[in-house]
Automatic annotation (TrEMBL):
Name of the coding gene: lptF
Keyword Nucleotide-binding: no
Residue ranges crossing the lipid bilayer per the database entry: 48-74, 103-121, 279-296, 308-325, 331-350
Source organism per UniProt: Rhizobium herbae
Keyword field contains Transmembrane helix: yes
InterPro entries per record: LptF (IPR030922), LptG/LptF_permease (IPR005495)
Main location: membrane
Protein name according to UniProt: LPS export ABC transporter permease LptF
Record's subcellular location: Cell membrane
Length: 391
């Protein structure tokens, strides 16, 4: 690699990292805060929250990488053009490949990284997150019981406690159970605790009110009563593993007896094709950034900022592939579209670069745009050409 290529690669990489880290921090924070209720409701330690937040991180990397790259490349080349570095390269006889080659190296490396994260690391982290959430939901004391708050455990079943003490002791227990349409049960207890197996809520020194449909109420006092939680904890402790949570090998050969696969086999097919297409986005977006910003232009030339043009183009491509991927879950006709969009975009970008063409607005469009800008007083009227103007 030539010295100037290493220079471009170093600048583009630095700008890419400067864009990636803040974007990742923002998205990661929003995703982590969305799961903070699991920790606050359960009273778990900060380590549990950090573990959950860390497991969320691989799911956002493939989404952010391509956009951070297109911003980094477009901004780097725009800055080089503003400093007349691209003009100097052209005057020195350097080919356009001198600029293209280091960006392609960076795009290929990030595409390989995206493929590895999307197919091997992210499925593992998603599986771990779902199991962690399912385990927490299976623990009534951790996920449901909260001081001075009515919590809905299941349809028709609510629990509230006045206070939690050390050793898992609960004070002021209230349980409302209306799951059986034949009667309603309301439990009051001075204290209690969930047993070691999490299968029962053992209440002490309380009473149970049984209300019949005819409004008759019977009251029974008890010294000790075990409220069965077996069905609830068993149902809550089962993690639902979806297509996005599966690794590449499972998607290539799914288990026909998998309950989720039996309900919606098209979602597994769509997920497989999504992983075979979206990992190319870093390279594809790098090509788009090169088309928009790799040619030397005069400072006097009026045009939209290359980074905005590149971002809008990439957002459209990303939206189109996202739409096609969602459609593939319902119809196999969208599967070819998932491959056609990146292939067509890549072909047009490569053709533009090989032909050494400049990305310009057609003259008629440019004239109409200038007329609109003049009317809006955003641009000035172009000076008259040489020669006398007729009255």
């Amino acid at each position: 690699m030539k010295l100037i290529e290493r220079y471009i690669l170093r600048r583009a990489t630095g700008m890419f990292l400067a864009t990636l880290l803040p974007l990742m921090a923002i998205v990661w924070t929003t995703q982590a805060l969305a799961s903070i209720n699991l920790v606050t409701d359960s009273g778990q330690s900060i380590l549990a929250f950090l573990k959950l937040a860390t497991l969320i991180l691989p799911s956002i990397i493939p989404l952010i990488l391509p956009f951070a790259l297109v911003i980094g490349v477009a901004q780097t080349l725009t800055a080089m053009n503003a400093d007349s570095e691209l003009t100097v390269l052209n005057a020195a006889g350097a080919s356009r490949m001198t600029i293209i080659r280091p960006v392609l190296y960076l795009g290929i490396a990030l595409s390989v990284l995206s493929f590895a994260v999307d197919n091997f690391i992210e499925p593992y982290s998603r599986m771990a997150v779902r199991k962690m959430i399912a385990t927490a939901h299976a623990d009534l004391l951790s996920s449901v019981v909260q001081e001075n708050t009515f919590r809905k455990i299941a349809e028709g079943l609510y629990v509230q406690v006045a206070a939690r003490r050390s050793g898992g002791v609960l004070h002021g227990i209230f349980v409302a159970d209306s799951r059986n349409p034949a009667y309603e049960l309301v439990y009051y207890a001075r204290e209690g605790a969930v047993d070691e197996n999490g299968s029962a809520l053992v209440m002490k020194d309380g009473e149970v009110h049984r209300k019949l449909p005819d409004s008759n109420v019977s009251i029974i006092k008890f010294d000790s009563y075990a409220f069965d939680l077996t069905d609830l904890t068993k149902m809550a402790g089962e993690a639902t593993i979806r297509a996005k949570d599966r690794d590449l090998f499972f998607l290539l050969d799914p288990d026909p007896k998998d309950p989720v696969y039996e309900k919606n086999p098209m979602s597994f097919s769509a997920e497989l094709h999504r992983r075979f297409t979206e990992w190319t986005f870093p390279l594809l977006f790098a090509l788009i950034a090169l088309v928009v910003s790799s040619d030397a232009r005069s400072h006097r030339e009026a045009r939209m900022h290359p980074m905005i043009t590149a971002l809008l183009t990439c957002l459209f491509v990303r939206w189109a592939t996202f739409y096609a991927a969602n459609g593939a879950e319902e119809s196999a006709a969208f599967v070819p579209v998932m491959y056609l969009i990146p292939l067509a975009t890549g072909y047009l970008a490569v053709r533009q670069l090989i032909g050494n063409k400049r990305l310009e607005i057609p003259l008629t469009w440019e004239q109409k745009l200038n007329e609109v800008l003049v009317r809006l007083r955003i641009a000035k009227v172009a000076p008259a050409s040489d020669g006398n103007q007729s009255a």
